[in-house]
Amino acid sequence: xxxxxxxxxxxxxxxxxxxxxxxxxxxxxxxxxxxxxxxxxxxxxxxxxxxxxxxxxxxxxxxxxxxxxxxxxxxxxxxxxxxxxxxxxxxxxxxxxxxxxxxxxxxxxxxxxxxxxxxxxxxxxxxxxxxxxxxxxxxxxxxxxxxxxxxxxxxxxxxxxxxxxxxxxxxxxxxxxxxxxxxxxxxxxxxxxxxxxxxxxxxxxxxxxxxxxxxxxxxxxxxxxxxxxxxxxxxxxxxxxxxxxxxxxxxxxxxxxxxxxxxxxxxxxxxxxxxxxxxxxxxxxxxxxxxxxxxxxxxxxxxxxxxxxxxxxxxxxxxxxxxxxxxxxxxxxxxxxxxxxxxxxxxxxxxxxxxxxxxxxxxxxxxxxxxxxxxxxxxxxxxxxxxx
Amino acid sequence: xxxxxxxxxxxxxxxxxxxxxxxxxxxxxxxxxxxxxxxxxxxxxxxxxxxxxxxxxxxxxxxxxxxxxxxxxxxxxxxxxxxxxxxxxxxxxxxxxxxxxxxxxxxxxxxxxxxxxxxxxxxxxxxxxxxxxxxxxxxxxxxxxxxxxxxxxxxxxxxxxxxxxxxxxxxxxxxxxxxxxxxxxxxxxxxxxxxxxxxxxxxxxxxxxxxxxxxxxxxxxxxxxxxxxxxxxxxxxxxxxxxxxxxxxxxxxxxxxxxxxxxxxxxxxxxxxxxxxxxxxxxxxxxxxxxxxxxxx
Lengths: 388, 297
What we know:
Radius of gyration of chain B: 19 Å
CATH topology of the largest domain in chain A: Rossmann fold
Strand order of the largest sheet of chain A: 7-6-8-9-10-14-15
Number of domains of chain A: 2
Strand content of chain A: 15-25%
Number of strands of chain A: 15
Number of helices of chain B: 11
Largest interface: A-B, 31 and 35 residues
Structural class of chain B: mainly alpha
Largest sheet of chain B: 2 strands, antiparallel
Largest sheet of chain A: 7 strands, mixed
Number of strands of chain B: 2
Helix content of chain A: 40-55%
Strand order of the largest sheet of chain B: 1-2
Distance between the termini of chain B: 44 Å
Oligomer: heterodimer
Helix content of chain B: over 70%
């Protein structure tokens, strides 16, 4: 019995070796399909499914069809590790993507290392993923947190040289880290900080802080409050007549399609740093937006476009390497240039961070319009990865 | 000396006036709560959702083309009807049980949870906004204050005075106070206690809904908004004395001023602990609060 099993295993191994590329190329996608982040996971899935359909219609990658296998990450690193392990071990996927939570992405890096496969994130912002905790098996095709504030700072110092800036963030990890990141980037470019306030999450009335803002007389107000807090904060600023001669800038999640409607005119003129907006005026983006709308009846957001782009990233790397072998694809991916709806992106060899153009976008008549473009090389910042 | 004058005008002045606008809002919430508690001996855990109900009714009515000022009249009437039937159909069922306190607490808490989900189902999780009917800001003694907040302070004060008049100067108010003092004695003297109870509950709900309409343009409308004021309103009721109108007004003003002025010196995170600390002190040292109960003072 034992011998037949070994024989079968040997035979299986040989047939595997004799036919090195059987069946389709499998892309594993571990992404939140339920829970708070389900909306992001939905965009990830739409982007990937659209790219795979386009690629398969044109003959696939290296002559092989592409297939996506989905698992629910539940935005939980522990779950993400189990699902990634399952996709690598049982489903034998060639490539893994989709993680949203930065903790999940960091954990999945190690799973990919153990399984000697490659993975990429299209959503996670944490600078550590391609910085202090970089991995030879993990790539990031989206912009990291630092690139958003870099783009915003570039625009700000051009608009108002040596500005005085006031900061208001929600009082928890995200609020404090976004404010300190923007503050250090702005101060390096000549901005003068004139005060900061951290308001509790779900704060109902911001008017007690307006005295401080008024007496600090800032030219620019940076904020990273989110959701309904933004609605209140912005409306109350307008109510108190504080928005005159004051430019309000903020984090990418502060003003979104979800809360823009409730703010009406109060958000008009707000500027943020972004990696993408469907308003981007290029033939490639227009084609992508109309294909996306035709397929899913809604506009893509930055998660959708980056997840669409990651499939083309893998295609370009595999075709350059002429194989799906991990080491060869990794070598090909380093320094790779590939086309996306956002324009040409460059995968930096030193830390596996994609270099891409960034934009300052301004709320104009209820839509995000591009007011400045910051070249990727200026926004990406230094390579701080020393693991490979 | 000029420093002090400037500090008074530009630092403390705006804080005090802002605190006053917030204080009026909190008192409006606390009044309904304290009247319902004083008369019915029921702690209405769904009071915040009554406030949300008022705000959402205003969103719907304004969307249907109703004038904001008309909403101020219509919404309390609708909410009062809802409150009346909620009292007759739900609260009366457990009111006469021996575990009245626990049962009514659980019942109103359940209503609160259901109401929040119903708001989410009907209006979605994203915030709505009611456009402020009074735009612009005025200068008062050199302090900029939005006109709508000035209106809020005025209207709120008028409502508080009206409530006081109703409770202390009308025959309905006399029946309410009599029933609060001794239900059986009041009933034997011909006071229709059941109807008075239901009407008072409806009155409290209408007050909460009215504050919902008044505050919707300032604080925006979303499913969990009921949680916003409710903790502060509970502290006001406890510090002021459960069931006392005078106490609620006094405690509402003092607590919001403490919050407002302290936010100049301490991190905003500490303003809630400060208020709850005062509440705990009162519970330990003077559990009857600043003033006595309804019908007793």
